[in-house]
Amino acid sequence: MAQPNAYWNNKVVLVTGGSSGIGLAIARLLAAGGAHVWLAARRQADLESALAQVEAARHSSTQRFSIVSADLSVSAQASEAVSRVIEASGPPDVIINSAGAAHPGYVQDLSLDVFRWMMDVNYFATVHVIKAALPAMIRRRSGHIINISSVVGFAGAFGYTAYGASKFAVAGFSEVLRAELKPHGICVSVVFPTDTDTPQLAYENQYKPPETKALDGLQTAGALSAEKVASAILHQAERCRFFIFPSSDARLMYILSTKLPKSLVFTVIDWLTMRGHK
Q1: Is 105 left (phi over 0), alpha (psi -120 to 50) or beta?
Q2: What percent of the chain has pLDDT over 70?
Q3: Contact at 8 Å (CB) between 42 and 22?
Q4: Which one of 50, 55, 109, 174 counts the least CB within 10 Å of its CB?
Q5: Is 106 considered catalytic here?
């Protein structure tokens, strides 16, 4: 039997959005790495199915795996979920905030409810979980918080006014959090995935305007598998990197969007979106 990963072995890890997609892929790898894993999501049936997959990947019989059903966008439910983890397993060593949703569309067509939904699920759920867990983590003076943003969390993309704003919020929150928690011995990372082959991507592809689909061409490798993204996230997190780029495309897009003059970046984006419009 392969040896567990030294960084993750015996750590208590809370994975939100752990019932599917990137969150579930991360949880399976954590189980293989020797971690004790908690999965948090809304739907009990999906959590039970995910739990079976995570248990099947376990490294040893001494590992513990559990689930907690909660709507993390509701602060009281997030607090209750974190309390259950702490009571059963102690303060989490690692929190991976993977819960999220995306609903693209033209800004004039998106209802205000969609904007609130994106902020609740992508941003406030992240804040709620961290706020609930921080007192215990600060007392222990150790831990690692990993927040999953998106490439549209640093570069505005056509069709993503609601989703992009929420992921910009996650990135900005993470940057300030890094500075504030460093004196407490707590590492913070923020992840910028490109399109990943998950049920969430299948959902949002139904609503992408043609201009948005034209921008998909910037991702040269196409949609990545959730397993590949999860592996890259955990590998880079082991070194306590703040910026985590699961693919070379994501890293290149960050460099181009932050280092080049914005006027040039906008010219390229406008050209691509115009092709989609035509």
Answers
A1: left
A2: 94
A3: no
A4: 109
A5: no
pLDDT tens for 169-196 read 999 999 999 999 999 999 999 999 999 9
Catalytic residue among 11, 150, 163, 174: 163
How many angstroms separate the CA atoms of 148 and 21, rounded?
12
123 catalytic? Reply is: no
Indicate which residue of 167, 174, 189, 208 is catalytic. 167
**Among all chains, which residue has been given the structure tokens 């305007």?**
209
Query: In the chain, where does DSSP find H-type helix?
Result: 21-32, 44-56, 75-89, 112-118, 125-140, 161-181, 199-205, 210-215, 226-237, 248-259, 262-277
- 3-state SS, 70-113, equals CCCCCHHHHHHHHHHHHHHHCCCCEEEECCCCCCCCCCCCCCHH
When pLDDT is averaged across residues 25-47 and rounded to a whole number, the result is 97
Q: Three-state DSSP class for 144?
A: strand
Q: What's residue 240's pLDDT?
A: 95
Question: In sequence order, which residues have a C-beta less than 8 Å from that of residue 254 and are 6 or more positions away?
Answer: 151, 154, 155, 192, 243, 245
Q: CB–CB of 153/168 below 8 Å?
A: yes
Query: 19, 98, 149, 174: which is the annotated catalytic residue?
Result: 149
Asked if 207 is an active-site residue, the reply is: no
Length of the chain: 278
DSSP string, 223-259: SEEHHHHHHHHHHHHTTT-SEE-SSHHHHHHHHHHHH
CA–CA gap between residue 40 and residue 7 (Å, rounded): 22
